[in-house]
Give the backbone structure.
Amino acid sequence: PQRRHRRRFQDPLVGRPTELARQVAAGLTEESRQFIAQNPRSRDPLVSVIIPCLKVGPTITPVLQALQDQSYKNFEVIINLDDKRSKDDSEAKIRAFSDKDPRFKLIFENRGMAQGRNAGRAASQGEYLFNLDADLACTVTVLEEAVTRCEVLKQDILTCPELSVAYSFWGECRQMEKIGYLEDPVQESSGRFMRRTVAESLAGADENLLAGEDYDYFLRAKAAGFVPGRIRAISWHHELWTLWDKAKKLYRYGRSFPHYLKKYPRLGTQQFFFVRRAYIVHWKMWLANPLYLFGTITANAVFYTTCGWGLGLSMI
């Protein structure tokens, strides 16, 4: 798997979408720094960062390095590796951190994303939990801003926005799409950072979900009366996939969507509908970049088709 990724992906692309994403990220980072400066904390509680891992050799190093570079230092990282199915150099790259920094702890109790998060929580000690993916590299103030919002504003569970790093034309299309998703309550990934009490009261992530478990966390927490919030600082999502890779992944996700749609029929329909509010709101951006608009429409046509196959077969 590592050799295949080396052939497909070299360095990130630096085209028009990357320039736009960097401009947006720079502005949000400044807003994050200002918020932290204007809202001093009285303490620095322990944060447990939980990362389920499967074949993460191509992306895990920048993710762990970004955690070491955080402005907030009182954290532990529970890296939950599926070593039975990870035949690449994932473990070696993780041990390059865990052998040198005691805050990084490697465990082998991962049998799926939601289950891996729950097992990581059980092995953690933090007052706060941060559910991070193995291809999401945090900008420098993510943890500090999240803790500050919870400590000062008394928020309980936070949306943590992300933008994409592109390694292919399709990744550039995704970059444009993610810019449009910022602050969109329907599409933006939610529920990554939370108080431990939130996770424990909700009995953790729903292990019947292959996708959307973070959004499900957020919705269940709000329904239970916990106070939601959102940070400004972003994480960089390393989009290391081909169209075929993503299509297969969406097929698998489609197989689990009936459970999500049963829980959230109206919202789920909005999230999976191919005409999205984010496209309409940002029509000027898309009109100024017609090549990426065409690529996004093409990619989503493939994704909706394969996801639909998975959903349809799961209901037979």
